[in-house]
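hey team, just a heads up i'm posting the complex here instead of the shared drive bc the drive is being weird again. everything in one block, sequence lines first with there labels, then the predicted structure for the whole assembly after. its two chains so it's a bit long, scroll down
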Amino acid sequence: MYLITNALKNLWRNAGRNILIAAIMLAIITSTVVTLTINNAAAKIIDDIRLNLGSRVEIGQDFMEMRAAGLDGRTDSVHLSIDDFYAFATSDYLRKTIFSASMYGWSNTFCALRDDPSNPGARERGDGQGGIVLDETCKLISTSDPTTLSEFGTLRHITSGRMFAELNECIISEELAALNGIALGDVITLQGAIVTDKHYSLTVIGIYADFTDEYSNFMFMFNRPVSENRRNEILTSFATLISAGWETSYGLHIRNEYYLKNPDHVRFYEQEVRSKGLPITYNVAINQAAYDKVTGPLSGMKGAAFTFMVVILLLGTIVLALISFMAVRERKYEVGVLRAMGLARSKVAFGILAETVMIAALCLVLGLGIGSAVAQPIADNMLEERVAVAEAEDAASGLGNRVLFAQGQMQTNDKAAGYTPESEIQVRLGGEVITQIMLITLALTALAGVIGVTLITQYEPLKILRERN
Amino acid sequence: MTKCLELRNVTYRYEGSRETVLQKVNAEFEHAKVYTIIGESGAGKSTLLSLLSGLDTCQEGDIYYNGTNLRSIDRDIYRSQRVGVIFQSYNLLLNSTALYNITLSMSISESKIKGRQAKKQAAYALLAKMGLDRETSHRKILELSGGEQQRVGIARALAHNPDVIIADEPTGNLDAETEQAVLAIFTRLAHEEGKCVIIVTHSESVTAIADEVLSIQEGQLSKLRRG
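-- predicted structure starts here --
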């Protein structure tokens, strides 16, 4: 007990030196808390994104392969049936599948926004070959999982009614409803604009307020087609959309998403779907570009935080080792006196170690407090800077990814278009970080202690006292 | 009288040196006696005290404490419980108070005096015997004069009630009155409590209280006077 008491008293007796050691330890611990918390929080978000975006496999047409097949006169099976897609969705590698599809629609029973309200369905024109082409006025968007309509809850809110659930139910924007006097329970009719034999009678089950940009896609900055006005979207279930017939090659844009249990199993999954008949003209891939774009700033910040932590730990450890070495050397005389008084080496070492542990414990508490308080603003600042850099880079490279077509329409090749870098991070001091910090503190304490103990065991009391005297 | 310490053919040389400081020294120190050792500077007096106090070991020969070879005794226990050493240069904990130096010595030696307050009281009493009042007891060693430090050193050596008291010039910085008081304590400890008191000194007044006076010369220890 007296060893602990002596150690406690020594903290005050040698306040100057101990404050120096404590300051270094506190700096190391605080920096490590900040960097570790940021690092762990970023890693967790990246993991989450990886589990979602990184595990999301899309099966899409490979236009280069299709072109090559066409040129070679191959008639590879480019048409997939809905049963094919359902078969692809049945796999042990998958945790869920979301079926999505969209098609352009046309109606002569209601007006679309920016259409000619006095003449609905007027966009009917000849195709030059004696046929009729219907200029699309709306877009029918479907999904098998309404919860994936991410804008709901942020930029879109159902103001009356509910989300579609049953066959032939749909929801529309307030503007579209107001323009046509559509109320909940009304039935709207429309047909496919390109594949005109698809007819739908949909019951409006919900009406939503829409705060999205009418034309959010850069491609439509010059030409603003009515069908691309987001207020004209009609949202319904995947089952409803395909109930009118299944066409994949013409008029229907399929965008199914297969979510892997393990993002690393994409190649195994591809082998499986190929064996189930997926032709070479279809790709099986995760959207790496989008994943990189979303996680880029976070990964950068995580890397920077980790590097900073390593540097701090290395430099801090060296400085701490030197200070500990000097501190014990400075106390050589005291050690000599204690040894001469008959205090065993192990007890002297215990006393020195107890002092270091007390300093470390104090620094740990302070470091955890200060570190957790400053981690969030530092993380926000770091991420903000990295997002700004990523956006600037994206803007600079964006034009290169766009192809200007003859009619003035822009088309994008950028697979990451529409994705934005993750710009928010919630930094929280969790049990994992506390454990890691405690282990680091323990290692630092052990280091300082080992230096002290090693030196002490080399000291012979008489030699020390002779040198002193 | 029983033998307390015994030297048998003790030879000592400094590390890396061929020259012997002590050459096959044989001597006996008994309980209840005061010994003084005199000799010229560099003769090996302090070395002899270091060997007797267990701070150093001889290259040849053996030292026995109560019949047991010091080589087979735990040196830390020997130093903390059996021997009280008064160093010429005091060797106190400079940043601690006089009182703490004494109570710490009691704690290290696992003194029979238990409890913080009891130790404090015993330390006050010991320091008072050395002429140090309570106010002085609470001052740091660095704030004490040489004489006061020497008195604290003596008090510390006696704090754990050792069998053997080894002192290197213990009264060098004391005034005549305190010197006499300290010497009286040494005499009483030897004659009344059976301690073995060994003092290295140049002082005639110290030599005067000795039961035996030994001299070190050319590495040999010889008796000059028997009390």
